[in-house]
Amino acid sequence: MKTKPQTAARSGPRSECPINAAVEVFGDRWTLLVLRDMIFGDRRHFRQLQAGSEEGIASNILADRLAKLVEAGMLTRDAPGRGRRATYSLTEPAIHLVPTLAHLGAWGVRHRPTTPDRRAGAEWLLAAGPRFWDDFMAELRERHLGIPRPESAEPPPSQRMAAAYAHALAEKQAADQGDA
Questions:
Q1: Cβ-contact 37, 52 below 8 angstroms
Q2: What's the pTM value of the predicted model, to 2 decimals?
Q3: For residues 57 and 49, is the Cβ–Cβ distance under 8 A?
Q4: 19-32, pLDDT tens digit by residue?
Q5: How far is residue 22's CA from residue 100's CA, in Å, rounded to a whole number?
């Protein structure tokens, strides 16, 4: 029985197509979820990411995805001292995924089964729109890159998002109780 010879690993993308280039960075089943949890859940340490994964990511898969995201320039990893845990930070390209994740969540709401609480969060994020996304990305830059966020009289975007999510969830729960 003949087998195909092993080919050397590619050093570049399979093609110069922009969609292919993006898929090669985060086109597997876990990578966008790791980024989601870092962006929207403010999880920056391995144990936080693993314990907070509602999808139940295995430790070996999480370690692999974090290493790949660092290698791809989507995350940085500090060099902690002995006995200290590593902290991962988003890079500018990862921060720029906020609008993409908002649209991806909206697609999921329209075309896939979702829970009412997750649906409320995705719907609110899409409705918040580009101005909010820009403010949220500025907050992420401050938190992850040390770039001060512009002065604003409004609360930080993460607080506004958490409050809006809690409000939307409470409204959905009240509507569900009213239907019962």
A1: yes
A2: 0.84
A3: yes
A4: 888 888 878 889 99
A5: 11
